[in-house]
Q: What sequence folds into this?
Protein backbone atom coordinates (compact mmCIF):
# COMPACT_ATOMS: atom_id res chain seq x y z
CA UNK A 1 0.00 0.00 0.00
CA UNK A 2 1.35 3.40 -1.00
CA UNK A 3 0.78 5.51 2.16
CA UNK A 4 -0.72 8.97 2.04
CA UNK A 5 2.13 10.23 4.24
CA UNK A 6 5.28 8.95 5.91
CA UNK A 7 8.54 10.11 7.48
CA UNK A 8 11.81 10.54 5.61
CA UNK A 9 14.73 9.26 7.72
CA UNK A 10 18.35 9.17 6.55
CA UNK A 11 21.70 8.09 8.01
CA UNK A 12 22.33 11.55 9.48
CA UNK A 13 19.06 11.34 11.45
CA UNK A 14 20.05 7.93 12.81
CA UNK A 15 23.53 9.17 13.71
CA UNK A 16 22.07 12.15 15.57
CA UNK A 17 19.97 9.87 17.77
CA UNK A 18 22.89 7.49 18.32
CA UNK A 19 24.98 10.43 19.50
CA UNK A 20 22.45 11.17 22.22
CA UNK A 21 22.34 7.53 23.28
CA UNK A 22 26.12 7.62 23.71
CA UNK A 23 26.04 10.75 25.84
CA UNK A 24 24.94 11.76 29.32
CA UNK A 25 21.54 13.36 28.59
CA UNK A 26 18.50 11.48 27.37
CA UNK A 27 16.12 14.23 28.45
CA UNK A 28 16.13 17.82 29.77
CA UNK A 29 19.53 18.23 28.16
CA UNK A 30 21.38 20.42 25.64
CA UNK A 31 19.78 18.93 22.51
CA UNK A 32 16.36 20.15 23.60
CA UNK A 33 17.67 23.65 24.26
CA UNK A 34 19.38 23.78 20.85
CA UNK A 35 16.30 22.49 19.01
CA UNK A 36 14.04 25.03 20.72
CA UNK A 37 16.36 27.85 19.71
CA UNK A 38 16.37 26.72 16.08
CA UNK A 39 12.58 26.41 15.91
CA UNK A 40 12.25 29.90 17.38
CA UNK A 41 14.62 31.25 14.74
CA UNK A 42 12.73 29.46 11.96
CA UNK A 43 9.50 31.01 13.25
CA UNK A 44 11.05 34.47 13.37
CA UNK A 45 10.29 35.12 17.03
CA UNK A 46 12.52 36.54 19.74
CA UNK A 47 12.06 33.75 22.29
CA UNK A 48 13.09 30.12 21.81
CA UNK A 49 10.23 27.73 21.15
CA UNK A 50 8.66 25.67 23.92
CA UNK A 51 9.04 22.07 22.77
CA UNK A 52 6.45 19.49 23.82
CA UNK A 53 5.53 15.86 23.30
CA UNK A 54 3.00 16.24 20.47
CA UNK A 55 1.01 18.69 18.38
CA UNK A 56 -1.94 18.04 20.70
CA UNK A 57 0.22 18.91 23.71
CA UNK A 58 1.31 22.08 21.92
CA UNK A 59 -2.31 23.19 21.58
CA UNK A 60 -3.07 22.36 25.22
CA UNK A 61 -0.02 24.31 26.34
CA UNK A 62 -0.86 27.24 24.05
CA UNK A 63 -4.41 27.57 25.35
CA UNK A 64 -3.14 27.33 28.92
CA UNK A 65 -0.57 30.04 28.18
CA UNK A 66 -3.41 32.18 26.80
CA UNK A 67 -5.09 31.64 30.19
CA UNK A 68 -8.15 30.01 28.67
CA UNK A 69 -10.59 28.76 31.27
CA UNK A 70 -14.26 28.33 32.22
CA UNK A 71 -16.43 31.12 30.86
CA UNK A 72 -14.14 31.76 27.89
CA UNK A 73 -15.01 31.06 24.27
CA UNK A 74 -12.64 29.78 21.60
CA UNK A 75 -13.65 30.31 17.97
CA UNK A 76 -12.19 27.76 15.57
CA UNK A 77 -12.73 25.84 12.37
CA UNK A 78 -14.51 22.48 12.19
CA UNK A 79 -12.21 21.36 9.33
CA UNK A 80 -9.36 20.21 11.52
CA UNK A 81 -8.13 17.38 13.70
CA UNK A 82 -9.99 17.00 16.98
CA UNK A 83 -7.23 18.49 19.14
CA UNK A 84 -7.66 22.07 17.92
CA UNK A 85 -10.98 22.12 19.76
CA UNK A 86 -10.68 19.47 22.46
CA UNK A 87 -7.62 20.88 24.18
CA UNK A 88 -9.43 24.18 24.76
CA UNK A 89 -12.54 22.30 25.94
CA UNK A 90 -10.39 20.44 28.48
CA UNK A 91 -9.55 23.81 30.03
CA UNK A 92 -13.24 24.62 30.38
CA UNK A 93 -13.75 26.82 27.32
CA UNK A 94 -16.85 26.80 25.16
CA UNK A 95 -15.95 25.88 21.57
CA UNK A 96 -17.56 28.03 18.88
CA UNK A 97 -17.23 26.72 15.34
CA UNK A 98 -17.09 29.18 12.45
CA UNK A 99 -17.19 28.32 8.76
CA UNK A 100 -14.29 28.14 6.33
CA UNK A 101 -13.21 29.93 3.17
CA UNK A 102 -14.38 27.83 0.26
CA UNK A 103 -11.08 27.96 -1.63
CA UNK A 104 -8.41 27.19 1.00
CA UNK A 105 -10.41 25.33 3.65
CA UNK A 106 -9.05 27.77 6.26
CA UNK A 107 -11.08 29.66 8.86
CA UNK A 108 -13.06 32.45 7.19
CA UNK A 109 -12.38 35.81 8.88
CA UNK A 110 -15.92 37.10 8.27
CA UNK A 111 -17.44 33.94 9.72
CA UNK A 112 -15.14 34.19 12.74
CA UNK A 113 -16.04 37.85 13.26
CA UNK A 114 -19.74 36.96 13.25
CA UNK A 115 -19.18 34.62 16.20
CA UNK A 116 -17.29 37.06 18.43
CA UNK A 117 -18.80 37.83 21.83
CA UNK A 118 -17.56 39.50 25.00
CA UNK A 119 -16.38 36.06 26.11
CA UNK A 120 -14.12 35.37 23.10
CA UNK A 121 -10.62 34.62 24.40
CA UNK A 122 -8.92 32.96 21.42
CA UNK A 123 -9.55 32.74 17.69
CA UNK A 124 -7.79 29.60 16.45
CA UNK A 125 -7.15 29.19 12.73
CA UNK A 126 -5.64 26.11 11.11
CA UNK A 127 -3.20 26.13 8.18
CA UNK A 128 -5.22 23.50 6.37
CA UNK A 129 -3.06 21.28 4.17
CA UNK A 130 -0.08 23.61 4.70
CA UNK A 131 -1.62 26.82 3.30
CA UNK A 132 -1.23 29.69 5.83
CA UNK A 133 -4.36 31.26 7.32
CA UNK A 134 -5.48 34.76 6.31
CA UNK A 135 -3.49 36.14 9.23
CA UNK A 136 -3.93 39.87 8.52
CA UNK A 137 -7.73 39.62 8.48
CA UNK A 138 -7.94 37.22 11.40
CA UNK A 139 -5.49 39.34 13.42
CA UNK A 140 -7.82 42.30 13.02
CA UNK A 141 -10.80 40.23 14.16
CA UNK A 142 -8.85 39.02 17.20
CA UNK A 143 -7.51 42.46 18.07
CA UNK A 144 -10.97 44.05 17.81
CA UNK A 145 -12.28 41.32 20.13
CA UNK A 146 -9.45 41.73 22.63
CA UNK A 147 -8.54 38.10 21.98
CA UNK A 148 -5.45 36.12 21.01
CA UNK A 149 -5.01 34.83 17.47
CA UNK A 150 -3.68 31.28 17.63
CA UNK A 151 -2.35 29.66 14.46
CA UNK A 152 -2.47 25.87 14.49
CA UNK A 153 0.44 25.36 12.11
CA UNK A 154 0.66 21.59 12.48
CA UNK A 155 0.71 21.37 8.67
CA UNK A 156 2.89 24.33 7.81
CA UNK A 157 6.19 24.62 9.66
CA UNK A 158 8.57 26.31 7.22
CA UNK A 159 5.84 28.19 5.35
CA UNK A 160 5.25 31.93 5.06
CA UNK A 161 2.72 34.57 4.04
CA UNK A 162 3.81 37.77 2.27
CA UNK A 163 7.38 36.99 3.33
CA UNK A 164 6.51 36.62 7.02
CA UNK A 165 7.33 33.16 8.40
CA UNK A 166 4.67 30.96 9.94
CA UNK A 167 5.28 31.48 13.65
CA UNK A 168 5.32 35.28 13.37
CA UNK A 169 1.90 35.70 11.77
CA UNK A 170 -0.22 35.12 14.90
CA UNK A 171 0.08 35.91 18.61
CA UNK A 172 0.65 32.23 19.39
CA UNK A 173 1.57 29.43 16.98
CA UNK A 174 1.68 25.68 17.50
CA UNK A 175 3.59 23.09 15.48
CA UNK A 176 3.41 19.32 15.15
CA UNK A 177 6.33 17.01 14.44
CA UNK A 178 4.36 13.81 13.87
CA UNK A 179 5.99 11.46 11.32
CA UNK A 180 3.77 12.58 8.43
CA UNK A 181 4.43 16.28 9.04
CA UNK A 182 7.00 18.53 7.35
CA UNK A 183 9.70 17.44 9.79
CA UNK A 184 9.53 14.87 12.55
CA UNK A 185 10.78 14.16 16.05
CA UNK A 186 8.86 10.86 16.11
CA UNK A 187 6.12 12.46 18.17
CA UNK A 188 6.47 16.05 19.24
CA UNK A 189 5.42 19.64 18.85
CA UNK A 190 6.27 23.19 19.82
CA UNK A 191 4.73 26.51 20.83
CA UNK A 192 6.04 29.94 19.84
CA UNK A 193 4.63 33.33 20.76
CA UNK A 194 5.35 37.02 20.30
CA UNK A 195 4.80 37.87 24.00
CA UNK A 196 7.55 36.73 26.39
CA UNK A 197 5.02 36.33 29.22
CA UNK A 198 2.99 33.91 27.10
CA UNK A 199 6.15 31.92 26.36
CA UNK A 200 6.99 31.79 30.07
CA UNK A 201 3.49 30.55 30.96
CA UNK A 202 3.76 27.91 28.22
CA UNK A 203 7.15 26.75 29.46
CA UNK A 204 5.89 26.52 33.02
CA UNK A 205 2.72 24.63 32.09
CA UNK A 206 4.61 22.00 30.04
CA UNK A 207 7.02 21.55 32.99
CA UNK A 208 4.39 20.46 35.56
CA UNK A 209 3.89 24.06 36.70
CA UNK A 210 7.18 23.87 38.57
CA UNK A 211 9.68 26.71 39.05
CA UNK A 212 13.19 26.83 40.49
CA UNK A 213 14.28 30.36 39.58
CA UNK A 214 15.02 32.33 42.80
CA UNK A 215 12.99 35.36 41.68
CA UNK A 216 9.88 33.20 41.29
CA UNK A 217 10.07 31.40 44.65
CA UNK A 218 7.96 32.32 47.67
CA UNK A 219 10.34 30.55 50.03
CA UNK A 220 13.93 31.67 49.51
CA UNK A 221 15.83 30.33 52.52
CA UNK A 222 15.96 26.64 51.58
CA UNK A 223 18.74 24.85 49.72
CA UNK A 224 19.49 24.41 46.04
CA UNK A 225 17.12 21.45 45.89
CA UNK A 226 14.07 23.66 46.50
CA UNK A 227 11.31 24.00 43.91
CA UNK A 228 7.74 25.23 43.99
CA UNK A 229 4.53 24.74 42.01
CA UNK A 230 2.64 28.07 41.93
CA UNK A 231 0.07 26.68 39.48
CA UNK A 232 -0.92 23.43 37.84
CA UNK A 233 0.85 22.03 34.80
CA UNK A 234 1.64 18.75 33.05
CA UNK A 235 4.78 16.91 31.99
CA UNK A 236 4.84 17.59 28.26
CA UNK A 237 8.64 17.67 27.92
CA UNK A 238 10.24 16.64 24.63
CA UNK A 239 13.33 14.47 25.24
CA UNK A 240 16.84 14.82 23.81
CA UNK A 241 16.48 11.82 21.50
CA UNK A 242 13.53 13.48 19.82
CA UNK A 243 15.20 16.89 19.78
CA UNK A 244 18.32 15.47 18.12
CA UNK A 245 16.19 13.86 15.42
CA UNK A 246 14.31 17.14 14.93
CA UNK A 247 17.54 19.12 14.68
CA UNK A 248 18.83 16.78 12.00
CA UNK A 249 15.52 16.99 10.13
CA UNK A 250 15.71 20.79 10.15
CA UNK A 251 18.78 20.62 7.92
CA UNK A 252 16.57 19.06 5.22
CA UNK A 253 13.43 21.16 5.72
CA UNK A 254 14.11 23.27 2.61
CA UNK A 255 14.59 20.09 0.60
CA UNK A 256 11.35 18.63 1.98
CA UNK A 257 9.50 21.84 1.16
CA UNK A 258 10.80 21.93 -2.41
CA UNK A 259 9.92 18.28 -3.04
CA UNK A 260 6.40 18.73 -1.64
CA UNK A 261 5.93 21.63 -4.07
CA UNK A 262 7.23 19.52 -6.96
CA UNK A 263 4.73 16.78 -6.10
CA UNK A 264 1.92 19.33 -5.87
CA UNK A 265 2.87 20.79 -9.24
CA UNK A 266 2.93 17.31 -10.80
CA UNK A 267 -0.51 16.47 -9.41
CA UNK A 268 -1.82 19.84 -10.60
CA UNK A 269 -0.51 19.28 -14.11
CA UNK A 270 -1.75 15.71 -14.33
CA UNK A 271 -5.24 16.44 -12.98
CA UNK A 272 -5.85 19.75 -14.74
CA UNK A 273 -8.91 20.12 -16.93
CA UNK A 274 -11.08 17.40 -15.35
CA UNK A 275 -14.40 19.14 -14.82
CA UNK A 276 -15.50 17.25 -11.68
CA UNK A 277 -12.24 17.88 -9.82
CA UNK A 278 -11.21 20.88 -7.70
CA UNK A 279 -7.47 21.23 -7.17
CA UNK A 280 -5.96 22.86 -4.04
CA UNK A 281 -6.11 26.65 -3.95
CA UNK A 282 -2.97 28.73 -3.63
CA UNK A 283 -3.52 32.39 -2.78
CA UNK A 284 -1.14 35.15 -3.84
CA UNK A 285 1.54 35.84 -1.24
CA UNK A 286 1.25 32.44 0.40
CA UNK A 287 4.23 30.11 0.40
CA UNK A 288 2.80 26.82 1.65
CA UNK A 289 4.61 23.71 2.71
CA UNK A 290 2.15 21.18 1.33
CA UNK A 291 1.43 18.66 4.07
CA UNK A 292 -1.63 17.43 2.17
CA UNK A 293 -2.81 17.36 -1.41
CA UNK A 294 -6.52 17.94 -0.73
CA UNK A 295 -8.31 17.03 -3.95
CA UNK A 296 -12.06 17.60 -4.19
CA UNK A 297 -14.42 15.59 -6.41
CA UNK A 298 -17.66 17.47 -6.95
CA UNK A 299 -19.93 14.84 -8.56
CA UNK A 300 -20.88 13.05 -5.33
CA UNK A 301 -18.55 10.10 -5.90
CA UNK A 302 -15.94 10.73 -3.20
CA UNK A 303 -16.63 7.38 -1.49
CA UNK A 304 -16.39 5.53 -4.81
CA UNK A 305 -13.09 7.22 -5.68
CA UNK A 306 -11.74 6.55 -2.19
CA UNK A 307 -12.60 2.85 -2.39
CA UNK A 308 -11.27 2.60 -5.96
CA UNK A 309 -7.89 4.04 -5.02
CA UNK A 310 -7.62 2.02 -1.82
CA UNK A 311 -8.46 -1.08 -3.86
CA UNK A 312 -5.53 -0.27 -6.15
CA UNK A 313 -3.11 0.04 -3.23
CA UNK A 314 -3.19 3.83 -2.93
CA UNK A 315 -3.48 4.87 0.72
CA UNK A 316 -5.68 7.92 0.32
CA UNK A 317 -7.25 9.61 3.36
CA UNK A 318 -10.00 12.13 4.17
CA UNK A 319 -9.11 15.29 6.13
CA UNK A 320 -11.26 15.97 8.11
CA UNK A 321 -14.66 14.95 9.50
CA UNK A 322 -16.20 18.18 10.83
CA UNK A 323 -15.34 18.22 14.52
CA UNK A 324 -18.85 19.03 15.73
CA UNK A 325 -20.17 15.88 14.00
CA UNK A 326 -18.42 13.86 16.71
CA UNK A 327 -20.71 12.26 19.33
CA UNK A 328 -19.19 14.33 22.15
CA UNK A 329 -20.22 17.60 20.52
CA UNK A 330 -23.53 16.22 19.23
CA UNK A 331 -24.41 15.29 22.80
CA UNK A 332 -23.74 18.92 23.79
CA UNK A 333 -26.24 20.14 21.23
CA UNK A 334 -24.05 21.01 18.25
CA UNK A 335 -26.01 20.41 15.04
CA UNK A 336 -25.02 19.36 11.55
CA UNK A 337 -25.50 22.16 9.05
CA UNK A 338 -24.02 24.92 11.20
CA UNK A 339 -20.96 25.34 8.93
CA UNK A 340 -22.25 24.41 5.46
CA UNK A 341 -19.09 25.34 3.53
CA UNK A 342 -16.94 23.14 5.78
CA UNK A 343 -19.42 20.28 5.47
CA UNK A 344 -19.46 20.57 1.67
CA UNK A 345 -15.65 20.62 1.63
CA UNK A 346 -15.53 17.47 3.77
CA UNK A 347 -18.03 15.66 1.56
CA UNK A 348 -15.83 16.26 -1.51
CA UNK A 349 -12.29 16.02 -0.10
CA UNK A 350 -9.80 13.18 -0.57
CA UNK A 351 -6.12 13.48 0.39
CA UNK A 352 -3.70 12.00 -2.13
CA UNK A 353 -0.29 10.60 -1.13
CA UNK A 354 2.10 13.40 -0.18
CA UNK A 355 5.56 12.92 1.33
CA UNK A 356 9.10 13.84 0.21
CA UNK A 357 10.17 10.33 -0.79
CA UNK A 358 7.18 9.89 -3.11
CA UNK A 359 8.54 9.26 -6.61
CA UNK A 360 7.36 10.86 -9.83
CA UNK A 361 6.29 7.40 -10.92
CA UNK A 362 4.13 7.06 -7.81
CA UNK A 363 2.48 10.42 -8.54
CA UNK A 364 1.87 9.50 -12.19
CA UNK A 365 0.26 6.21 -11.14
CA UNK A 366 -2.15 8.02 -8.80
CA UNK A 367 -2.96 10.54 -11.50
CA UNK A 368 -3.67 7.87 -14.10
CA UNK A 369 -5.99 5.98 -11.74
CA UNK A 370 -7.95 9.15 -11.01
CA UNK A 371 -8.14 10.16 -14.67
CA UNK A 372 -9.39 6.69 -15.58
CA UNK A 373 -12.01 6.82 -12.81
CA UNK A 374 -13.22 10.21 -14.04
CA UNK A 375 -13.28 9.08 -17.67
CA UNK A 376 -10.66 11.67 -18.62
A:
Amino acid sequence: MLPYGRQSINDADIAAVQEVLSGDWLTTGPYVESFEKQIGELAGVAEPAVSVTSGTAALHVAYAAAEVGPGDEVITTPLTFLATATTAALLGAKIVFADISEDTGNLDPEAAAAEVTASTKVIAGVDYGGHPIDAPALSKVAKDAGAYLLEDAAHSVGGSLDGVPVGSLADITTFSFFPTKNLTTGEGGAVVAKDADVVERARRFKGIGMVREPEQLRTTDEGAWWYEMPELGLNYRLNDLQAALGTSQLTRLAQFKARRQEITDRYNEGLAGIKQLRLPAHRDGAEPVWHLYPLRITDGRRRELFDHLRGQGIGVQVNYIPVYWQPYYADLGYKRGMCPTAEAYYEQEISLPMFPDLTDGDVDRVVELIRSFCGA
User: Anything to note?
Assistant: Residues 253-374 form a domain with the Aspartate Aminotransferase, domain 1 fold (CATH 3.90.1150.10). The longest strand covers residues 120-126. Residues 71 and 93 are 6 Å apart (CA to CA). The chain is about 40% helix and 15% strand.
